[in-house]
Amino acid sequence: MPVGAGRFAPSPTGPLHLGNLRTALVAWLDARSSGRRFLVRMEDLDRVTSSPVHERGQLADLAALGLDWDGEVVRQSDRFGLHHEAIAALTAAGLTYPCFCTRREVLEAASAPHGVPGRYPGTCRNLGAATRAERAAAGRPAALRLRTDAETVRFHDEVLGDVEGPVDDIVIRRNDGVPAYHLAVVVDDNDQGVDRVVRGDDLAATTPSQIHLLRLLGKPVPAYAHVPLVLGDDGERLAKRHGAVTLAQLGGDAGSVRAALAVSLGLAAPDERPTAAELLERFERPPRWGAGAAVWRSRRSEMALGAPPECGEPRGR
Ligand code: GLU
User: Are strands 223-227 and 196-200 parallel, antiparallel or unpaired?
Assistant: First the structure.
């Protein structure tokens, strides 16, 4: 049996904030505590916003926290060949169609009375060959979408429990020819031997579409654990506007940032400064995933648990 792998897959489009770092720490703990390899993959599909400077900064932050990874860091932009092979296989199976809609058209149609917000309204699904040729001749670049049939996918999430959701006609190749995120992520996870996906719960809603894609490609489905994001004290997802939220902005003291993250995971008491190795010892198998949403109190520079596992007591000792 080859050893499985876990991974952290940031987009190198800016410095990692506490929420990203917390997800990285949990993914690392999960992989290392189960004897898996831990991989870092740079999701740099967007060539405009991605930069090597951010990539270096993100890797330096992970290293400063004591999170190590196996092998070379992989970049999605080096793997387009593999992605295009999968796109070609889906197209050969009649499972794709060109979509000429702009982002705004999709949003408008989805917010119409019979539209479903967040879902592709199907505008281009059944265009005739003549209309397609006309649109293409008019110079509208086409994205490629997956043809789905309102299937629903059920999966077990280790944090969220049983989840059921609709699959969507997701874009698998953008209209600039670049492989789209959903396609790249499942192809890369599979190719890299990732069998446990630990990531932020903002991605849970699109997981049914990713699982559907994996099944169409005849690939195994990994285990999923979608962990809560860190929130700012206004209850919104942590972001730049919440003030000092990156390791550098917080003074660069990796030990205190690791401690704050550990408190938010129920793995340390507020006055402790555990090492990464100590956290690994405390991380239980199977993971209890008990700690709920974490709130970053920017004014006090401290992490609080939205829903403490056991009356706020640290666990795992
Ligand atoms: N690259 C994605 C992000 O930075 C994460 C993708 C994933 O973990 O599947 O949000």
Answer: parallel
